[in-house]
């Protein structure tokens, strides 16, 4: 209500060309006295207070007011997925190239899987976020209509350092191809990580190498 929230956008790029494929919209809080409050700090507080659906719905209302040529990704928290108001909030965004990101945590509660299928049937591509960080349940990838998954940045951090992280990245890529799920490597920060991902066949990436989450003006006119 004080207007301190805003949306930042981070590109997801085609690894072969470096061209931007889509953007992830991320909520940011700028406090008048304390400056930028990290989402790592305010998201858990909003979750505990039960206010996170309010925030997620606010983001959907903001996105409904803009049109973009490229697809947009938005994050939905576990509570929002189950919230009665979600379908209403998404209605104006039908046919708008909006992809919905969910983590495994969102799928733990009863009713969550049915809701995810409903969203997919409404025409919204559903993206499994931070894959590999939780239980990395194969059942979710196999049994639910995910059209995309994002590999947790912990694995990308191991490129060139940890052969096991590299093995995991290759195995997840092979799996995604068999399941026909698009795959994004998250947390790409260095050129050598980009080169490695390209060389093993990854086609999409996201990370500080191509851009931090930034306000729309900076994204449009860098
Ligand atoms: O869980 P999810 O993938 O939605 O998290 C997105 C968060 O990851 C954002 O808050 C963003 O600031 C952060 N992030 C994005 N790219 C990078 C990166 O290359 N390195 C690190 N450390 N964090 C990143
Ligand atoms: Mn995300």
Please, could you describe this protein's structure?
The protein has 10 helices and 10 strands. It has 222 residues and is of the alpha/beta class. An 8-stranded mixed barrel has the order 1-2-4-5-6-7-8-9. It is globular and about 50 Å long. The mean pLDDT is 96. The structure holds guanosine-5'-monophosphate and manganese (II) ion. Residues 10, 26, 39, 75, 129-130, 153, 186-189, 206-208, 213 line the site of guanosine-5'-monophosphate (G).
Ligands bound, unique = guanosine-5'-monophosphate, manganese (II) ion
Oligomer state of the chains in this structure: single chain
Low-pLDDT residue intervals, each spanning 5 or more residues: none
Name the helix and strand elements from N-terminus to C-terminus, one letter apiece: EEEHHEHHEHEHEHHEHEEH
Shape: globular
Strand content: 15-25%
Radius of gyration: 17 Å
Number of DSSP helical runs: 10
Q: What is the number of strand segments? A: 10
What class, by secondary structure content?
alpha/beta
Average pLDDT over all residues: 96
- For the largest sheet, list the strands in their spatial order: 1-2-4-5-6-7-8-9
Largest sheet: 8 strands, mixed, barrel
The percent of residues in helical segments reads 25-40%
End-to-end gap = 30 Å
């Amino acid at each position: 209500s004080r207007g301190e929230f805003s949306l930042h956008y981070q590109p997801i790029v085609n690894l072969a060309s470096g061209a931007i494929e889509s953007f992830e919209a991320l909520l940011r809080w700028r406090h008048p006295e304390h400056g930028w409050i990290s989402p790592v700090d305010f998201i858990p507080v909003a979750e505990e207070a039960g206010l996170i659906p309010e925030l997620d719905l606010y983001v959907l209302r903001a996105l409904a007011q803009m049109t973009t040529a490229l697809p947009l990704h938005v994050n939905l928290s576990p509570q929002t997925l189950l919230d009665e108001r979600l379908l209403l909030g998404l209605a104006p965004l039908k046919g708008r190239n909006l992809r919905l990101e969910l983590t495994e945590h969102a799928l733990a509660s009863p009713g969550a899987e049915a809701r995810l299928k409903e969203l997919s049937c409404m025409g919204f591509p559903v993206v499994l976020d931070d894959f590999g960080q939780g239980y990395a349940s194969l059942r979710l990838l196999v049994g639910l209509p995910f059209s995309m998954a994002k590999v947790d940045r912990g694995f990308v951090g191991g490129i060139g350092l940890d052969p096991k992280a590299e093995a995991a990245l290759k195995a997840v890529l092979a799996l995604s191809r068999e399941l026909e799920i698009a795959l994004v490597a998250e947390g790409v920060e260095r050129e050598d990580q980009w080169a490695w991902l390209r060389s093993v066949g990854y086609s999409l990436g996201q990370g500080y190498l191509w851009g931090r989450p930034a306000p729309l003006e900076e994204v449009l006119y860098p």
